[in-house]
Design goal:
- The chain is α/β, with parallel strands linked by helices.
- The protein has helices at residues 38-41, 50-60, 73-85, 97-114, 135-141, 144-147, 165-173, 196-209, 280-293, 296-319, 342-351, 374-397, and strands spanning 16-20, 23-26, 33-35, 90-94, 122-126, 157-160, 177-182, 185-186, 192-193, 212-216, 241-244, 255-259, 324-330, 333-338, 354-355, 357-359, 363-366.
- The protein is built from 12 helices and 17 strands.
- A 7-stranded mixed sheet has the order 4-12-11-10-7-5-6, with helices on both faces.
- It binds 4'-deoxy-4'-aminopyridoxal-5'-phosphate (PMP).
- The site of 4'-deoxy-4'-aminopyridoxal-5'-phosphate (PMP) has 15 residues, from helix 4.
- 4'-deoxy-4'-aminopyridoxal-5'-phosphate (PMP) is lined by residues 40, 96-98, 101, 130-132, 183, 187-188, 216, 218-219, 245.
Length: 398
C-alpha cells in the first residue's frame, strides 16, 4: 500500500504508542525500548515528565493560542528565565530550530544594515554543519546533498573547515562579512565538539572585525552537554546571537532566537514574526521544562551520567576494535565512530531494544534523556555490547 505521507523520511519500521522516562512501548507491545534518540535531543526530560504533563493539561484547559497581536504573559516569563541564564538581553520565540536560525541570520544582517553597513551580508558557516531545512538555514550549512535539486545556491554564504584558520581569518576580516554561524558542538555532522581555544579565537576575531558571532545551540543547548548552553563550558566565548530549540520545549515545538540588545538593535516592529511563535501552550510547557532542566541537580546529574557512560563506552570501544573506533562529543551529545556501517548498527541495536541516532562521518549518536538513571545507562551499554557482538558475528559470516 502506498503511503499518503510525502516521501522524505527513511523511517524505521516501528511505531510507538506510549513513553515514560527513557522507555518507549511499541504498537506491537513486548519489551519496551530504551530511548537514546530522545526525539533527536528534544525529550531532555524523558517522555511524559509529570511536571510537563501538568503544565500542558493546565494550560490546555485555559488558553492555547491568541497570536502575537496580543501580549502573551508566558513569553515574558520564559524570556526572563533565558536572559537571566545567559549572555542575551532579548528573545524572539519561534517554533522550530530552523526558524530560530533564520531569525538569527536576519538579526545579524539587519544589525549591519541599520548601521549603514548594508554591504555586510555574508554569513560564514562550517563544513559538517546542520542548521535546518529552510532555504536560509540550508544555504548557511551548505551541505550539497541537502541542497541538491532545490535551485541555485543563495549568495551571501561561505563555508569553511574549522581547521582552515587562515581562510577563516581572511573571511572574518572581509568587509562584506556580517556574521559567523557555528554549532559549539556539531550534532548531525557527527558529535564534534569545538575546542575552547577555537571558540576563544573566533570570539576575539569577530569582536575585532565588528562581525557578529551566532551560535546554533538547537541541539547542544538546554542542558545537553551538562551546562545549560554548551558554550558556557568556556567563559568568555559568549555569542551575540543564539538559536535554541529542541529541548526548550522538551517535546513540544518551540524555539527561540536570543540576542544582546546591541545585536538586535536593527530589529523593529514588522521586521520579523510568526503566527504560532511563543503561543501560550508552548510557553507553559517550555517554562516547566526550563525550570526542571536549569536546576543544578539536573545539570549535575547530566554531567555525572556523561562521565559514567564515557567510562563504559571507552571500555566498549577497546573491547570491540572491529566494530567501534572512538567515542566523541560532549556531555550527553555522544558520538560513537564505527568501523561497521552505522545504518546497519542502528538496525541491529533495535533488535536489542535500543534506539540510537545516526550522524555524519559514520557515527551513531547517543542522546539519552538528561534524567536517565545510572542503572538505565548501564542497560544502554549492555545493549550496545550485545549489538557489537551481533555486528561482529555478521562481519565474520559475511
Ligand atoms: N540546528 C541544529 C544544530 C540541529 O541539530 C537541528 C535539528 N537537528 C536544527 C538546527 C533544525 O531544527 P528543526 O528540525 O527543529 O528545524
Amino acid at each position: 500500500m502506498t503511503s499518503p505521507l510525502m516521501n522524505v523520511y527513511a523511517r524505521a519500521p516501528l511505531a510507538f504508542v506510549k513513553g515514560e522516562g527513557p522507555w518507549l512501548t511499541s504498537r506491537e507491545g513486548g519489551e519496551p525500548y530504551l530511548d537514546c534518540v530522545a526525539g533527536v535531543a528534544s525529550n531532555a526530560l524523558g517522555h511524559c515528565h509529570p511536571a510537563l504533563v501538568a503544565a500542558l493539561t493546565e494550560q490546555g484547559n485555559m488558553l492555547w493560542h491568541v497570536s502575537n497581536m496580543f501580549q502573551v504573559p508566558g513569553q515574558d516569563a520564559l524570556a526572563a528565565r533565558l536572559t537571566d541564564a545567559c549572555f542575551a538581553d532579548t528573545v524572539f520565540f519561534a517554533n522550530t530550530g530552523t526558524e530560530a536560525v533564520e531569525c538569527a541570520i536576519k538579526v545579524a544582517r539587519r544589525y549591519h544594515a541599520a548601521r549603514g553597513d548594508a554591504q555586510r551580508q555574508t554569513i560564514i558557516g562550517f563544513h559538517g554543519a546542520f542548521h535546518g531545512r529552510t532555504y536560509g538555514a540550508l544555504n548557511a550549512a551548505g551541505n550539497a546533498a541537502h541542497l541538491d535539486g532545490f535551485g541555485a545556491p543563495m549568495p551571501g554564504f561561505v563555508h569553511l573547515s574549522p581547521d582552515d584558520r587562515a581562510s577563516l581569518a581572511a573571511e572574518i576580516a572581509d568587509p562584506a562579512t556580517a556574521a559567523v554561524l557555528i554549532e559549539p558542538v556539531q550534532g548531525e555532522g557527527g558529535a564534534r565538539a569545538m575546542t575552547r581555544g577555537f571558540l576563544e579565537s573566533l570570539r576575539a576575531a569577530c569582536t575585532s572585525a565588528g562581525v557578529l558571532l551566532i551560535y546554533d545551540e538547537v541541539q547542544s543547548g538546554m542542558g545537553r552537554t551538562g551546562q545549560l548552553f554548551a558554550h558556557q563550558w568556556f567563559p568568555g566565548t559568549d555569542p551575540d546571537i543564539m538559536a535554541v530549540a529542541k529541548a526548550l520545549g522538551s517535546g513540544l515545538p518551540v524555539a527561540a532566537c536570543l540576542a544582546t540588545t546591541e545585536a538586535a538593535s536593527g530589529m523593529q516592529p514588522g521586521g520579523h514574526g510568526s503566527t504560532f511563535g511563543g503561543n501560550p501552550l508552548a510557553m507553559a510547557v517550555a517554562i516547566a521544562a526550563f525550570d526542571e532542566i536549569a536546576k543544578s541537580e539536573t545539570l549535575e546529574h547530566a554531567r555525572a551520567l556523561s562521565e559514567h557512560l564515557r567510562g563504559s563506552l571507552d571500555a566498549l570501544v577497546a573491547g570491540w576494535p572491529g566494530v567501534m573506533v572512538e567515542v566523541r562529543g560532549k556531555g550527553l551529545l555522544i558520538g560513537l565512530k564505527l568501523a561497521v556501517n552505522n545504518r546497519a548498527f542502528i538496525a541491529a541495536a533495535r533488535e536489542q531494544r535500543l534506539l540510537v541516532a545516526g550522524g555524519g562521518g559514520n557515527i551513531v549518536r547517543l542522546l539519552p534523556p538528561l534524567t536517565m538513571s545510572f542503572a538505565e545507562a548501564d542497560g544502554v551499554v549492555a545493549r550496545l555490547d550485545a549489538t557489537c557482538a551481533a555486528m561482529a558475528a555478521a562481519e565474520i559470516a559475511a
